[in-house]
Amino acid sequence: MATIDSVSSETDAHAHDSHGHDHPSWLAHHFDTPEQQFDSGKLGIWLFLVTEVLFFSGMFCAYAIFRMLRPEVFVGCSEFLNTKLGAINTGVLLFSSLTMAWAVRCSQTEEHKKLVALIATTLSCAMVFLGVKSIEYSHKWGMGLLPPGSYFYNAANEHPTQEQLVELHGFSDSMAYFLTHSLYFLCAPFALIAAGVLVWLIIAKVTGKDFQYACAKPLLVVALSFFGGVGLGTILESGGEHHGEGHVAMAGDHGHGEEHTEGDHDDHGHEGGDHSHEGEVAGAEGTVGVVESPLGEDYAAVELLAENETNTGLKDLVAAEKAQQSLAKGQVVADPAASDLGISTLDGEVNTPKQAGVFFGIYYCMTGVHAIHILAGIGVLVWLLIRAIRQDFNRQYFGPVDYVGLYWHLVDLIWIYLFPLLYLIR
């Protein structure tokens, strides 16, 4: 019995030694084969990507609901989004997906130098994207295109100074300084990173640390790519779109439906010398102009006939006419439901700062969370770049490159939806 136990123990020890001998360093001990490890990792990344899709779905639902309720707000506010910048970022991300897919293939074929170059190119595209987005954000912040509570855009003064932000809009000195110099704050972290990588490159070269020098060279190019995106965005923004009539109405601005000013009254008079304008409402002093009834001289007769209980159609017509007269004179309707009264929709100025602020709140939420995912992808890609320089990947072990590639494709795919929904559909 003791002999059997001794032989069994020796056999187990030999099997353990042989298993450890056949176990490569890149194969985790709880996996028996490289295929098992790769399939397990692939399942894990797909489950993670499903949670990411669910996360973004909530924001897409909020976008769809608000757009359904206030389509005219999106029409007006989308005029402030520079489609050229959005299109450039779309092209940059599509190209980065190509380089990332190519990098996965190079990791499988053990083309180590090409793998390093392709991962560095993908990183550079990500930095260019963030540089262009920094120009977009800083330009809008300076104009006051902010979420509700902070929105202060004024078409008469699209780029207020720091003193005006403090005096007219009640911002603190520090916040006003940030809004007028936001581009510097957005660029500062990347400038520090570029300076740090440059110092690292010089030290590694002087001290003869070849591996660190090999890591610092592509990372310096990646860090400087951000400022290439800033320069590209500056050129496109300076020669970009002028919003003109598409601006969001502020208090005191003319509404979108206004077709003429007081100076043009004499040129647009009605035939027969009647210069009164139907639906005209006076401005600043609150005096109400002449509001003519669409029924003309027959209104009194119609009102008299509507007193008969059987003439329900005329009663609804008179009620609707009174509601229109009340709204035209600037009177407040106590019950909002009473403003319908036979009218399916009532035209009015809906592009108020509050509603426009909701649009830009959704815009910053969706594009900001996407930018955070870009930053997370940059961090993981830097890790991959260092491992690729170390030549950790081979024909049997390329899972990390494949997993990061799937994540990067999802980030790009989300932007493919964001770009038309926010920038193009009007």
TrEMBL record:
<dbReference type="InterPro" id="IPR013833">
    <property type="entry name" value="Cyt_c_oxidase_su3_a-hlx"/>
</dbReference>
<dbReference type="InterPro" id="IPR035973">
    <property type="entry name" value="Cyt_c_oxidase_su3-like_sf"/>
</dbReference>
<feature type="compositionally biased region" description="Basic and acidic residues">
    <location>
        <begin position="253"/>
        <end position="280"/>
    </location>
</feature>
<feature type="transmembrane region" description="Helical">
    <location>
        <begin position="116"/>
        <end position="135"/>
    </location>
</feature>
<feature type="region of interest" description="Disordered">
    <location>
        <begin position="243"/>
        <end position="280"/>
    </location>
</feature>
<feature type="transmembrane region" description="Helical">
    <location>
        <begin position="43"/>
        <end position="66"/>
    </location>
</feature>
<feature type="transmembrane region" description="Helical">
    <location>
        <begin position="183"/>
        <end position="203"/>
    </location>
</feature>
<feature type="transmembrane region" description="Helical">
    <location>
        <begin position="362"/>
        <end position="386"/>
    </location>
</feature>
<feature type="compositionally biased region" description="Polar residues">
    <location>
        <begin position="1"/>
        <end position="10"/>
    </location>
</feature>
<dbReference type="Pfam" id="PF00510">
    <property type="entry name" value="COX3"/>
</dbReference>
<feature type="domain" description="Heme-copper oxidase subunit III family profile">
    <location>
        <begin position="42"/>
        <end position="426"/>
    </location>
</feature>
<protein>
    <submittedName>
        <fullName>Cytochrome c oxidase subunit 3</fullName>
    </submittedName>
</protein>
<keyword id="KW-0812">Transmembrane</keyword>
<feature type="compositionally biased region" description="Basic and acidic residues">
    <location>
        <begin position="11"/>
        <end position="21"/>
    </location>
</feature>
<feature type="transmembrane region" description="Helical">
    <location>
        <begin position="86"/>
        <end position="104"/>
    </location>
</feature>
<feature type="transmembrane region" description="Helical">
    <location>
        <begin position="406"/>
        <end position="425"/>
    </location>
</feature>
<feature type="region of interest" description="Disordered">
    <location>
        <begin position="1"/>
        <end position="21"/>
    </location>
</feature>
<keyword id="KW-0472">Membrane</keyword>
<keyword id="KW-1133">Transmembrane helix</keyword>
<comment type="similarity">
    <text>Belongs to the cytochrome c oxidase subunit 3 family.</text>
</comment>
<dbReference type="InterPro" id="IPR024791">
    <property type="entry name" value="Cyt_c/ubiquinol_Oxase_su3"/>
</dbReference>
<dbReference type="InterPro" id="IPR000298">
    <property type="entry name" value="Cyt_c_oxidase-like_su3"/>
</dbReference>
